[in-house]
Amino acid sequence: MDALSSSFITTNSLNLLRRPQLNPPTSPPLLLNVSSIRTEDRPQTQTTTRRTTSRPNNNNNKSSSPPPPPSKTTTTTKVRPSNVPTKSTPPTLEAATWLNLPTTLCNSLDGVINNFIDTPLRPSVDPKHVLSDNFFPVEELPPTECPDIEGELPPCLDGAYIRNGPNPQHIPRGPHHLFDGDGMLHSLRISRGRATLCSRYVRTYKYTLEQEAGHPVLPNVFSGFNGFAGIARGAVTAARVLTGQFDPRGGVGLANTSLAFLGDRLFALGESDLPYVVRLSPEDGDITTIGRCDFDGRLSFGMTAHPKKDPETGEMFAFRYGPVPPFLTYFTLDSKGEKRPDVPIFSMRQPSFLHDFAITKKYALFCDIQLGMSPMDMIIGGGSPVGSDPAKVPRIGVLPRYATDESQMRWFDVPGFNMMHSINAWDDDDDTIVLIAPNILMIEHALERMDLVHCSVERVKIDLKSGTVSRTPLSERNLDFGVINPDYLTKRNRYAYMGLGDPMPMMSGVVKLDLEQGKAVATRVYGPGCYGGEPFFVPQGTIDSTEEDDGYVVSYVHDEVKGESSFVVMDAKSSGLDVVATVKLPRRVPYGFHGLFVSEDELRKQRPPVL
Q1: E strands of 302-356, at which residues?
Q2: Is 176 a known ligand-binding residue?
Q3: Does the UniProt entry include the keyword Oxidoreductase (predicted)?
Q4: Integer Cα distance of 157 and 423 in angstroms
Q5: Is 215 annotated in some ligand binding site?
């Protein structure tokens, strides 16, 4: 979720690479000894009260690192390095590189910045606050069977449910935003009523670099470039590039946001970088990172973490955004994963935070919201590199989905409409488009005070003939992270399954929303002290299942009272989203972002790993 600022870092770092480097990075060895610095079985703290995002005592706390977890062990695992499925692989540093003088100097400067230059940390970037309770990171977990299952897992769940999310491998030494953690995939492999949990890091270039160093190397994008300390960190990063400690061609992304399956490959996504190909073994459920994918050299920079896959054609539609023109670029991929040419959108007049978009059978829809890049606020005010602009009028851009240029792009002003996530969109007739999406009512809190964010689901109608836009609220409850039956993407549908924010980004339950009636028709609250994340809908997939809501809603749920996590399966058609199965997990799963269900057939069709 950090494409604006990380693209800026990468662009400027690549300019530095044109100068001679003192110590060019070396190639990785065939095998790496990976030693974890921290493991733990319990969250740092357990509480019976709801987590809030305002702790007054933290505002003046100079320390940037939370206390260590209750227990520590050290494990060693041999893994193969991630091979990038492209024509060239950005080199990785050997451990000996970290002993040279430039590295020691840069590390010392980092310490000075963290301890003496940083201003008192705001709660939104104070690790003691951000990484509290079930947000505290966990160690990797090899495939581990889950013998404790209540009820029966439906046959349509044979496959794997995978959820992505931030999980920093090192305790931050400076400011840290929730969005800054390394990507970790938590997968539940289900086969014939049995379940196996596996948690693995996405081995990005940044992860591997910092794993070898044994400590954080690159500044956190959302929190590390604020005020004078941010300028100093930028200078240290430039020095690392010039002295060969960091090669920006390897990317700075975290791959911590979502997943996609296309062309028999599974991708871990984060919009600040290229997608990372990962592979989930259908035999034992283990997850392996294959490497960055540039689609045979056709994708140069990042890609949205929310691409859209047409369930009928198998095509995928995506975009990227950044801080330099064109601020928005649209592109498509065929069902085999072959990327088509870019469509630059120069009518996007300034960099905007486009986290998600929507497609219909005929169009692609882009929401230019009141979040954008604000470098002066970042430098002078010490704020986030992404900030709100209350004077800006949000717009929706409509482009034919197979456009080869932006000549047919049309923009419609939609005052007060700030979409972070879309639910669905469809063509109502030849001249009308319907978009269903939550609207963030207080966009200024989206990054700094997520507990104050309230999302109201709306139906937005765009009349292409008259040029008018009408909006209808469908729910006043705080609902986000909505999903539908994936077979209905781009088509008129009736039901959406929404996370109930209580407060954001924690979800206290799931609400089934009737989009035609504009009301909730079923609700499942997890219980006191229990919170989940984004729900996911899995169709029943049988010949007899003809209704849109024939299927199951699944989610990881954490009990903060007991300190235990579970995988909950709900009957999507029932009047109360009845729980039909619960898998008690062998250890807790931290709160995260977006997930994906990969069917048994898709798992078996995955391409073999590239070694």
Answers
A1: 308-309, 316-321, 328-333, 343-345
A2: no
A3: yes
A4: 22
A5: no
